Amino acid sequence: MATVTKKELIDQIADATGQKRVVVKSIVQTFLNNIVVELGKGNRLEFRDFGVFEVKQRRARKAQNPKTLEEVWVPPKRTVKFKVGRLMKQTLVDETSEGGDGGDGQM
User: Fold this and answer.
1) Which residues pair with 47 in a beta bridge?
2) pTM (two decimals)
3) Are 45 and 52 in contact (CB under 8 A)?
4) Residues 6+ apart with CB under 8 A from 106
5) Is 25 in a helix, a strand, or coil?
6) Same domain, 75 and 87
7) What is the DSSP letter of 4?
8) 86 and 60 co-located in one domain
């Protein structure tokens, strides 16, 4: 499995649209910045067929330091949850059924 960087993604979009790389970079960065801002406000972001980003509050809990086995208190925190949309889910299922990694289809 390869890793695609933001730069590579920008290059792909620029090639596909015929736009200058600097314009695409600005649009992509603005898009990502807006996602961060909206999630920071606690808003839910829904992109049809792609997926949904939403902020979840994790409860405070006790954990254990695996090295010392000492109990540690973990404070509550906000985290981002992503739920896969229909089109992405179908694409992932199709990739797996075409002889991908032979896995169980889970992400």
Assistant:
1) 51
2) 0.73
3) yes
4) none
5) helix
6) yes
7) -
8) yes
| Token representation of residue 19 | 């736009």
Tokens at residue 17, please? 């649209």
| Rounded average pLDDT over 19-30 | 97
d(CA 21, CA 77): 37
- Residue 49 sits in a domain whose CATH number is 4.10.520.10
In DSSP terms, 84 is beta-bridged to 51
| DSSP secondary structure letters along 56-95 | EEEPPEEEE-TTT--EEEEPPEEEEEEEE-HHHHHHHHHH
Give 36-67 pLDDT, tens digit per residue: 999 999 999 999 989 999 999 999 999 999 99
Write out the residue range of the structural domain in which residue 68 sits: 44-98
Both 30 and 64 in a single domain?
no
Same domain, 92 and 50: yes
Encoded tokens for 46:
């829904």
64-99 tens-digit pLDDT:
999 999 999 999 999 999 999 999 999 888 877 765
SS3 (DSSP) at 42 = coil
pLDDT of residue 4: 95
